[in-house]
Design goal:
- The protein is an alpha+beta fold.
- It folds into three domains: 45 residues, no CATH class; 105 residues, 2-Layer Sandwich (Uridine Diphospho-n-acetylenolpyruvylglucosamine Reductase, domain 3), CATH 3.30.465.10; 100 residues, CO dehydrogenase flavoprotein, C-terminal domain (Enolase-like, domain 1, 2-Layer Sandwich).
- The protein is 34% helix and 25% strand.
- The chain contains eleven helices and twelve strands.
- The strands form three sheets. Strands 4-5-8-6-7 form a five-stranded antiparallel beta sheet.
- Helix 9 packs antiparallel against helix 10 and helix 10 packs antiparallel against helix 11.
- The chain starts with a strand and ends with a helix.
- The mean pLDDT is 97.
- The structure holds flavin-adenine dinucleotide (FAD).
- The site of flavin-adenine dinucleotide has 29 residues, from strand 2 and helix 6.
């Protein structure tokens, strides 16, 4: 990436105005992913001084600003206590501490990376995003937006609930991207199942969720059937990391483990 001008915005409105001045202008988070691209950027807009650097706990939610680093999220105890550490655990499997000290929540969500170890556990709990212009919406809806509007991600909002959770990233080596990642939660008796890196972006297994949430008793057979529905309804593919068939087998195993874990 080549940056022609670097602009430290003082307010979010100033950042937004600058963003829309030129099609090649963009917001820079930690810059770790951007620097891998060959883009020529007229103006990179830095959000360090616009006041998006906090994790706030309110009565009903935990709000994490876009400029907070993934390392700060990983170390947050309230998230660990409420959500069985699945968000913290997802992040701790991303490269090394040096990278996690640099990369931001904004860059990690806005990039909609299909391999994301942050998005999968966030979908498994109740997460919303707040954009400067588009406003607030469920993370799931944000991920489905096809248009690439020039907007600024301000924060994510996670509903405070006591969640029993499971997260697993299958990777070939310690620092690698996921071959598959699976998040399973049970919140007030309701199950959610999310599978990412299939290799496409994380998604809910909605039919499997409907099936298991309609069962009175969760028997080993119900768990087995649920895992089968997951791999029948979601699309899997082959890439340099793994074949479609291998991903399907792994998903069945980790969904079953996740369901057993949260049903204990
Ligand atoms: C070598 C390497 C290995 C990695 N491995 C993994 C992995 O195994 N698992 C995993 O989950 N992740 C992995 N990542 C991704 C990483 O965790 C971050 O998600 C990624 O680097 C983006 O964060 P950033 O702060 O660097 O964003 P940047 O590179 O600064 O920005 C990324 C995109 O988001 C936009 N953006 C940034 N902030 C905002 C905002 N507030 N509003 C609107 N747009 C914004 C930018 O314009 C750009 O388009 C890896 C990254 C690298 C470089």
């Amino acid at each position: 990436m080549e940056i022609v001008n670097y602009f430290k915005a003082k307010t979010i409105e100033e950042a937004y105005q600058k963003l829309n001045e030129d099609p090649s202008n963009l917001i820079i988070g930690g810059g770790a992913w951007l620097r891998l691209s060959s883009k020529i950027v007229n103006t990179a807009i830095d959000l360090e001084h616009v006041g998006l650097n906090q994790i706030k706990e309110t009565k009903n939610s935990i709000e994490i600003d876009a400029y907070v680093t993934l390392r700060e999220v990983e170390k947050n105890e309230a998230l660990a206590n409420l959500f069985s550490s699945i968000i913290n655990k997802g992040i701790s499997g991303i490269m090394g501490v040096a990278l996690r000290n640099l990369v931001t929540v904004g860059g990690s969500i806005f990039g909609k990376y299909s391999f994301s170890d942050f998005i999968t556990p966030l979908l498994a709990v109740n997460t919303e995003v707040e954009m400067y212009k588009a406003g607030r919406m469920a993370l799931e809806d944000f991920l489905k937006l096809r248009t690439r509007e020039k907007d600024i991600l301000l924060k994510i909002i996670i509903k405070k609930e006591k969640v029993l959770g499971y997260y697993y990233k299958m990777k070939k080596t310690g620092l690698d991207f996921a071959v598959i990642n699976v998040g399973v939660t049970k919140t007030n008796g309701y199950y959610k199942i999310v599978v990412g890196a299939r290799p496409s972006l994380a998604a809910y297994a909605t039919s499997a969720m409907e099936y298991i949430n309609n069962q009175k008793v969760i028997t080993p057979k119900v768990i087995e059937d649920t895992a089968q529905i997951v791999v029948e309804e979601l699309k899997f593919g082959t890439n340099s990391k793994a074949s479609k068939e291998y991903r399907i087998e792994l998903t069945k195993v980790y969904v079953k483990r996740g369901l057993k874990e949260v049903t204990k």
